[in-house]
């Protein structure tokens, strides 16, 4: 896991874009998410209850954050 950024919280080790799979850090993941207009897993992992998120869209992330703030 030498390529893992110190702030990375991604647990999807099967993903080919995970920093442990190459020497490019988080750039390939961020690039993919920007292209698809999605949020990276590491953003979801910063919200309590993230284990139940339904998708990776901006909308999904916003709903998770708003739901968390209601509690």
Notes on the structure:
It is a single chain. With 71 residues, the chain is an all-alpha fold. It is 38% helix and 0% strand. The chain has one domain (19-70). It is globular, with a radius of gyration of 13 Å. The protein starts with 26 loop residues before the first helix and ends with a helix.
Descriptive terms for the model:
3 helices, single chain, 0% strand, 71 residues
Secondary-structure map:
Elements: H1 27-36, H2 41-44, H3 58-70
Could you give a short description of this structure?
The protein is mainly α and 71 residues long.
Mean pLDDT: 86
Helical amount among residues, as a percent range?
25-40%
What low-confidence regions span 5 or more consecutive residues with pLDDT below 50?
none
SSE order, one letter for each helix or strand: HHH
Total beta-strand segments: 0
Task: Please give the alpha-carbon distance between the first and last residues.
Answer: 35 Å
Radius of gyration: 13 Å
Shape: globular
């Amino acid at each position: 896991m030498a390529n893992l950024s110190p702030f990375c919280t991604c647990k999807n080790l099967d993903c080919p874009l995970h920093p442990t799979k190459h020497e490019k850090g988080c750039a390939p993941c961020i690039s993919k998410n920007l292209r698809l207009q999605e949020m990276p897993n590491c953003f979801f992992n910063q919200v309590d209850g993230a284990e139940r998120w339904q998708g990776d869209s901006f909308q999904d992330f916003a709903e998770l954050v708003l739901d968390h703030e209601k509690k």
